Amino acid sequence: MIHIFSIIAAIAVFASFTFLIFYAPPKNIVFRAVSEPEAENIKSYLRSNGIDVYVKSIYTNRVDPHPNDGAYYYSVHVINQTDFKRALELISRIG
Hints:
Alpha-Beta Plaits
């Protein structure tokens, strides 16, 4: 019986590490948008305030991947981790 619990615990630990390595969101995302223009506007705003950022599009539909189904979202990432908190503060001002 103890052997079964050891196997289950090992599987749980493996699954946790797999999630953290492959699926956990990066710590540099400051904004998520459903449209590219919205993400680009935030990017321009942050860059005009001296923060280096980039936009990344992510396709979220893994079952039926058709590019016309609108399953994309866009995320704005800071390049320098030291700008993370300031970027969040700037974004919160335009609320």
